[in-house]
Design goal:
It comes from Rufibacter hautae. This protein is α+β, with helices and mostly antiparallel strands. Helix content is 36%, strand content 19%. 20% of the residues are buried.
């Protein structure tokens, strides 16, 4: 009887020791996995910091011109509508330039900036937050409130200049009765960023430079900005999402030739890389702004609509005429 009790006790002790060893092995495995996860996160953070430092140190231009060779320079902003027929080759189905940019940012290959000044880098999360349309459920928006639309007037009147009669203080009406106070505006975020085929607006910032060494005018692209179309913005105007150095974009275009495709509809054997397409100016655009003392866009200087388009055409012709005027025959 004592032998059975001793055998049972030893068996229980062996099982407990086995369970303790298994628990210790599981804890060690979890510790190793947590350590590997931390090391991976540290590695990614170091890579992101190195990419940011490299992008900040790199010039914005893919082919910078020495300042000593610059005889004339004018900064120009151009709008590109990817829905136009001439721009469709860089907006082909499944290979949109906007899709390539979004995926490069997600992979950590491309650094985004807050504006085309290219001074303030931003994280990928901020870029995709800017890419998410926001809708209002009624009332005034924050921009309208900031403009003072909800501020009470100094002296209320009936709309014809006659002072309105004094209002008696009344209790808050019950829900559903006339005169109830409307609910304030509430911003509702969908949580889904725009799809690549919905981002069909780009803005190009370029320096128009006359190189005195090579005696020709260059369109030196500095930055490309993703723009949210007005129909997806609750405020009703186009909103910049993020800007990118063109030198970084050209590097990404070269590194992914199968995705960075300018589709040649006439010859499938002659598709081009997007970097070559920008170098060859295989896209349609119109000028929206030329550097000026007030930093104003053409539509602010000359008016929107037809006047703005005529001003853009005039600005383009003036640049061409300037180049022609440099020569005498």
């Amino acid at each position: 009887m004592a032998q059975k009790r001793t055998t049972k006790k030893s068996t229980t002790s062996a099982q407990r020791a086995q369970q303790n060893a298994a628990a210790a092995a599981a804890a060690e495995k979890a510790r190793q996995e947590d350590l590997a996860r931390q090391q991976e996160m540290q590695k990614q953070a170091e890579m992101m910091q190195a990419r940011m430092d490299s992008s900040l140190a790199a010039p914005a231009s893919a082919r910078p011109i020495p300042p000593s060779d610059v005889m004339f320079k004018k900064t120009v902003w151009r709008a590109v509508d990817l829905r136009e027929k001439q721009n469709n080759p860089m907006f082909s189905n499944g290979k949109q330039i906007t899709k390539l940019i979004m995926e490069a940012v997600k992979r950590g290959e491309l650094q985004a900036y807050r504006s085309d000044t290219l001074n303030t880098p931003i994280a990928a999360q901020e870029m995709f937050t800017n890419m998410t349309p926001t809708e209002t459920s009624g009332g005034l928006t924050e921009a309208e409130k900031a403009a003072g639309f909800d501020a009470p007037t100094a002296a209320e009147d009936d709309g014809w200049g006659t002072p309105a009669p004094a209002k008696k203080k009344t209790t808050t009406p019950a829900k559903g009765k006339a005169g109830a106070t409307p609910a304030p505006a509430v911003a509702v975020t969908t949580g889904n960023e725009l799809l690549p085929n919905e981002l069909y607006k780009l803005e190009i910032k370029e320096d128009v430079i006359f190189d005195k060494k090579r005696s020709r005018l260059y369109h030196d692209i500095q930055a490309i900005t993703l723009v949210m179309p007005a129909k997806y913005n609750s405020l009703g105007f186009e909103k910049p999402i993020a800007s990118f150095k063109y030198s970084d974009l050209a590097r990404v275009f070269r590194a992914h030739p199968d995705e960075a495709l300018w589709f040649n509809a006439q010859n499938d054997a002659q598709h081009k890389n997007l970097a070559d397409a920008f170098d060859l100016w295989l896209f349609s655009s119109y000028i929206t702004k030329v550097s000026n003392v007030n930093d104003a866009r053409l539509e602010e200087q000359y008016g929107a609509g037809k006047k703005g388009l005529l001003a853009a055409q005039q600005a383009m012709e003036e640049l061409i005429e300037f180049e022609y005027s440099l020569w005498s025959y």
